[in-house]
Design brief:
- This is homocysteine desulfhydrase.
- It is an enzyme of class 4 (lyase).
- This protein has 16 helices and twelve strands.
- By secondary structure, the chain is of the alpha/beta class.
- It starts with a helix and ends with a helix.
- It binds pyridoxal-5'-phosphate.
- Pyridoxal-5'-phosphate binds next to α4.
Length: 407
């Protein structure tokens, strides 16, 4: 069925009352009661038995897992407490000292940090490749210790789109397990398992939940045997999804394709207009002609996504001033929610880096990252134009509702 249909008709459990709820019930219980010792013991055998204890499985969490597996075209999924829970969980479940990982150079900061930590403390070697060239990956992957290839569908903040079809096919040929972080594309724009990935990981905090009100993560597996292998390790780690977090994520999923169309349409308009300005020296958006990943993006993605970054001619000072002047967009980390957010890495997340170190990280001193939301595009453009002109605008929402709550 069409993705629009699959997203709306999320998986639901049977409900024996002659009718059933349209929304997935929230089963907010840590444990489940049994009437016989043998039944309780039998339920502890694996990931798919009766529910025993919510770290091992929960009906609301399982509904999310089945929904995500359905959207990504996987055989099964495991939901986690956060995207980093999913990524760390998969890495710790699959790797042992002496193993080697081949990873894309431009990686999410948290993934880079966990790989660096595994390398330092557990003797796991990490080899970085561009993500654009199959031959470069093949050269790195022929070593017998290589276990895992780590890629991202759309990298942040460069907008690089890895050559997934080429790299995933090469990994299959060489017997290397592949893991693709699909958080920025979401299954609405790309389904890496259809392109040959073994594991897709998500920060469901981002587009899948979509409303900036929940943290969550997931790993989706092409082959159910791999899920069964990873599952016991994740139960040990305890980074499991909470039922309410899973419920909120399920609450977001039916509108994912709809939201994603709007994110993509808004971002494409803003990218095009920003590229035409003289005070903007570069725009990084994969759907924009001239981006290094343009051809790959058109092949791999169904749209350019909602993440956009651009370099201001005025450098560090201009970037800092811009993020403080916008009013419709908010100054915040994270991405993928309905509201537009901006950050300026050189004066926030990367402020310890000097000009040289910033350049090595591929981040210009005047680079602004924008997670484009689903507001009216002319309001977003007006906000950007005013902030670039050095004017502040009007805050459309503010925090009036918070003062109601807090008195
Ligand atoms: C946010 C993010 C993560 C981490 O997810 P959390 O839910 O914050 O733990 C991982 N990968 C990508 C690409 C992200 O954007």
């Amino acid at each position: 069925m069409d993705l629009n249909t699959r997203a709306v008709h999320v998986v639901n459990q049977p409900f024996d009352h002659g009718s059933w709820p349209l929304s997935v019930p929230l089963v907010q219980s840590s444990a489940f009661a049994f009437s016989s010792a043998d039944e309780l013991a039998g339920a502890m055998a694996g990931p798919d038995g009766r529910y025993v204890y919510s770290r091992r499985g929960n009906p609301t969490v399982r509904a999310l897992e089945q929904t995500l597996a359905g959207l990504e075209g996987g055989a099964g999924a495991i939901a986690f407490a956060s995207g980093m829970g999913a990524i760390s969980g998969v890495l710790l479940a699959l790797l042992k000292p002496g193993d080697r990982v081949v990873a894309q150079r431009c990686l999410y900061g948290g993934t880079f940090a966990v790989l660096s930590d595994l390398a330092r403390r557990y003797g796991i070697e990490v080899v970085y490749v561009s993500g654009d060239e199959v031959a470069e990956f093949e050269e790195a992957a022929v070593h017998p210790a290589v276990r895992l290839l780590v890629l991202e569908t759309i990298a942040n903040p460069t907008g690089q789109v890895a050559d997934l079809p080429g790299l995933l096919a090469a990994a299959r040929r060489l017997g290397v397990t592949s893991m693709v972080d699909n958080s920025l594309a979401s299954p609405a724009l790309c389904r890496p398992i259809e392109l040959g990935a073994d594991i897709v990981v998500h920060s469901t905090t981002k587009y899948l939940s979509g409303h900036s009100d929940v943290l969550g993560g997931a790993a989706v597996f092409a082959d159910d045997a791999l899920r069964r292998k990873v599952w016991p390790r994740t139960v040990e780690l305890g980074a499991c999804a909470d039922p309410f977090a899973a419920w909120l994520t399920l609450r977001g999923i039916p509108t994912l394709p709809l939201r994603m169309r709007e994110h993509c349409a808004n971002a494409a308009v803003l990218a095009e207009r920003l590229a035409g300005r003289s005070d903007v020296t570069a725009v990084h958006y994969p759907w924009l002609a001239g981006h290094p990943s343009y051809a790959t993006a058109r092949k791999v993605l169904a749209g350019g996504g909602g993440l956009l970054s651009f370099e201001l001619a005025g450098g560090r000072e201009a970037g800092r001033a811009f993020i403080e002047r916008v009013r419709v967009a908010k100054l915040a980390l994270s991405l993928g929610g309905v509201e537009s957010l901006v950050t300026h890495p050189a004066s926030t997340s990367h402020r310890e880096l000097d000009a040289e170190a910033l350049e090595a990280a591929g981040i210009g001193a005047g680079l602004v990252r924008m997670s484009v939301g689903i507001e009216g595009v002319e309001d977003l453009w007006g906000d950007i134009e005013r902030a670039l002109a050095g004017e502040g605008g009007e805050d459309p929402g503010g925090w009036g509702h918070l003062s109601l709550l807090l008195g």
